[in-house]
Amino acid sequence: MKLAEIQAALRSRNMGAWLFYDHHRRDPIAYRVLGLPETLFVTRRWFYLLPAEGEPRKLVHRIESHHLDGLPGSKQAYSSYQELGDSLKAMLRPYKTVAMQYSPLNMVPYIGLVDAGTVEMVRGCGVEVVTSGDLVAQFEATWSEEQIASHFAAQHSVDAIVAAAFQEIGRRVHSGGTDEFAIQQWIEEAFRREQLTDEDDPPIVAVNEHSGDPHYAPSSGRSAPIREGDFVLLDIWAKKNTPGAVYYDITWVGSLGQPSDIQRKIFAAVRDARNAGVRTVQQAVAAGQKICGWQVDAATRAVIAQKGYAEKFVHRTGHSIGTTVHGNGANMDNLETRDEREILPNSCFSVEPGIYLAEFGVRSEVDVLVRGGAAEVTGKIQQEIVII
Q1: Residue 315 near residue 354 (C-beta atoms within 8 A)
Q2: Under the phi-then-psi rule, with left for phi > 0, alpha for psi from -120 to 50, and beta for the rest, what region is 185?
Q3: How far is Cα 129 from Cα 99, in angstroms, rounded to an integer?
Q4: CATH 3.90.230.10-classified regions of the chain
Q5: For the chain, what percent of residues have pLDDT higher than 90?
Q6: Which end of the chain has fewer CB within 10 Å, C or N?
Q7: Does CATH place domain 3-140 in 3.40.190.10?
Q8: Which pLDDT tens digit goes with each residue over 114-137?
Q9: DSSP assignment of 32-89, as one string?
């Protein structure tokens, strides 16, 4: 646990303390930030108060009084719910504001892990509960130099695999045929050769109308053939198979033969929206201005709306990226939620607008890394539909 850094972050945000709470391991964020074993057997409620100044405090049940012994701070035990309430109130008395894994109106459900009753109990102690969203982003979704290096190592391999996958599709189609699942399995084998992992969440290979389904996934029992004239979408994410490595996540599209006019039109709209989102981040970061996830989504969505396809862009613009492909930093979202978390230095996220029609869909995804006062796309950028 990074005690001094967390306390400095609390002071910079004028927060009195960060109050961690769990029961039956419902809050994995707490375990990761505090460095607790994720296999801890928890049948009773515990609280850990990490103040902006001074010594942390623990509140644990007497039959599981050892659970937080690996963390710094004083300890108090309880047995009855009355004793729990009295002890919690005394622990919180010095503070006006505490952060918790709480999201107002559940606008960021990835953060809203503390149940409503517990929030009510804490408020009943006379303190204001605020969201820990930006704190979680800082301590869960910012990367070390080693992690940044792992991202670029994955990028180098994945970009090459994507290019080779399109070539393999063409070779197989022209020499006898293939299908979505076969190409997915070919990509998985390429991951193994390159010491990459997707943690058993395989890539998307989607043909024609399947590409119009944002989360379509082929399987051995559901796989469309790939033929001459087809439109193909590849959504591929992977990280190096080493501890602490972070993901690289991209989406490209291609056509077996010349794409149709409507395919070119839809791709151009998605590409322009993607570029607008990236440019919005780059300009804000270069100017030293705070920018939140919802603002990036608004920029991409405005381009697609101007093209007349607003109703066909049915998901957020992008997501935080970390040791899991969907990380705990700011998402680029002003549709599914309004993500007001700040885009932080040393964080990475996808920009992936899409337009989905009945016959086909287009998504174009890049990863953006913020560091050193700049924002950069970390891999190759698709500017035209790949002709397979």
Answers
A1: yes
A2: alpha
A3: 6
A4: 145-387
A5: 98
A6: N
A7: no
A8: 999 999 999 999 999 999 999 999
A9: HHHT--TT----S-EEEEEESSS--EEEEEGGGTTTTTTSSSEEEEE-SHHHHHHHHH
